[in-house]
Each structure stands twice: as structure tokens, then as C-alpha cells.
Design goal:
It is a single chain. This protein is mainly alpha-helical. It folds into three domains: 34 residues; 107 residues, no CATH class; 72 residues, no CATH class. Helix content is 52%, strand content 7%. The protein has ten helices and four strands, in the order αααβααβαββαααα. The strands form two sheets. Strands 1-2 form a two-stranded antiparallel sheet. The chain has a two-stranded antiparallel ribbon with strand order 3-4. Strand 3 and strand 4 form a beta hairpin. Helix 3 runs parallel beside helix 6 and helix 8 runs antiparallel to helix 9. The longest helix is centred in the first third of the chain and has 25 residues. It is extended and about 80 Å long.
């Protein structure tokens, strides 16, 4: 075989090999984990075991960042802040309300498909109630075992439930009006204003409301009538001091 033909053949085979290698490394893990993942189960196993329901139990588990937190009970431990930041974001009601379980997958959290099936079976067998699986944070400590963490943004208090109900009513009403984009712009506005120096007290909240009013009315939505229709802002997360 001439040298030129040999070089071309080597190049073609090398290109084919590298393409296959890249597909194996970056693409193959997705269908593999979807259909046959074993460590925490897989979506196919979960859907077959649970079926389709109006309400589904979602169980998340931390990814490898949990190896960095160390003793989170030690106030001087640097990993403590990482732990609380990740958990606080994960259980934020406004964030969770906009996500299905599958959309909660990110670089910090994985879904525990196997335990989601087991939890659902407990409800089906009347061993537990669906309400028992409201937002709960469990963490393991090598000295104390499994512990439940209570946070203001988690749990199932009446105030929290009212906040979730208000968020859903807020979004549904805007969607019915064809103005769903205002819901997301509202969230962006509140998140931005609440992250500014000085906190998010009554004065800052009132300023945010004025900006939101201009934003709504610029799109032809009567701000005051809108809130009257869904029962006012009372109970809406982040707007406690109005």
C-alpha cells in the first residue's frame, strides 16, 4: 500500500476511534444511567414502579460536594457554610414550585430513584401518609447518625403551606391572562432586591413592590386588582413585612 494511502487510512481510523471514545465518555453515560443506573436506581425503574400520579414523592441526595463539608456542627468549620448554602437553595419554595423532580437534577443534587419508589410504596401500603414526605432534610453525622434539620424555608408549617398556595395562585392567574412572563420577572426582581446590601426589610420590600407595579402596568395588568383577586400579597415568600 502506498505511503499516502497508508497515512490516509491511519488518519481515518484514528478519527473514528477518537469519535467513538468521545461518544463513550460524554454521551453514553446518559442513556446508560437512564435505563440501567444501579447506584440510586434509574428513571425507567422509577416510572415503571410508580406509574403516573398527580402527586409524586421526590427524594434528592447530595453529590460529591458533601465530602467537603466535614463536621457541619462545628461553627468554625469552613464547609459548614457550603452545606447551608446548598441546602437553603435546594428547599427554597419559589425555586421548588417551578421544578418537576427531574428538573431538580443539577451539579449539587441527584435524584434517589430507588428510595422514591420505596417511599411511594409506603404510601400505597398505608404505612405512611403522603403528608409525611413534605420537605424534610436528613443528614448523616458519624458521631450522631441520621439527623433531621429544620430550616425556616423547609418544613410544612401553616405559613409555609400558605406561601406555596399563594405562589401557585399567583402563577396560575398570570398564566390564564397570558402574562406568565411577569411571574418570572417578579421572581427575578425579588431575588435581586433581596440580595442587595442592607437586607430586605419593609422599606426595601415596598420599593420592590413599586417597581413590580410599574412592570405589571407596562404590560396592561392592573396591579392592585390583580392582587385583590388572589387575596393580596400576605403570605407570599419574601414579602413578610408588607
Amino acid at each position: 500500500m502506498p505511503l499516502e494511502d497508508s497515512s490516509r487510512e491511519i488518519l481515518n481510523r484514528t478519527t473514528t476511534f477518537m469519535t467513538d471514545l468521545l461518544l463513550y465518555i460524554f454521551v453514553w453515560p446518559w442513556p446508560r444511567d437512564f435505563f440501567s443506573g444501579r447506584r440510586v436506581g434509574n428513571p425507567l425503574f422509577w416510572r415503571i414502579g410508580v406509574g403516573f400520579r398527580d402527586q409524586e414523592i421526590v427524594i434528592r441526595r447530595s453529590r460529591r460536594w458533601d465530602l467537603k463539608i466535614g463536621n457541619f456542627l462545628n461553627e468554625h468549620n469552613e464547609g459548614r457554610q457550603l452545606f447551608f448554602d446548598n441546602v437553603k437553595t435546594a428547599v427554597d419554595p419559589m425555586w421548588m414550585n417551578e421544578k418537576t423532580g427531574y428538573l431538580m437534577l443539577n451539579k449539587e443534587w441527584d435524584l434517589d430513584w430507588r428510595h422514591m419508589v420505596r417511599a411511594t410504596k409506603l404510601v400505597d401500603n398505608k404505612t405512611a401518609e403522603l403528608e409525611d414526605f413534605r420537605t424534610t432534610i436528613l443528614i448523616y453525622h458519624k458521631s450522631y447518625g441520621w439527623m433531621a434539620l429544620e430550616m425556616a424555608t423547609a418544613g410544612g408549617s401553616a405559613k409555609e403551606e400558605e406561601g406555596r398556595r399563594k405562589i401557585i395562585a399567583f402563577k396560575d392567574e398570570l398564566t390564564a391572562m397570558g402574562k406568565e412572563n411577569l411571574f418570572f420577572r417578579w421572581i427575578e426582581l425579588i431575588q435581586f432586591e433581596s440580595s442587595q446590601p442592607g437586607g430586605f426589610g419593609p422599606e426595601q420590600q415596598q420599593k420592590a413592590v413599586e417597581k413590580a407595579k410599574q412592570m405589571f402596568e407596562a404590560q396592561g395588568v392592573d396591579f392592585d386588582k390583580f392582587w385583590d383577586k388572589i387575596g393580596g400579597m400576605q403570605g407570599l415568600p419574601g414579602m413578610d413585612n408588607l
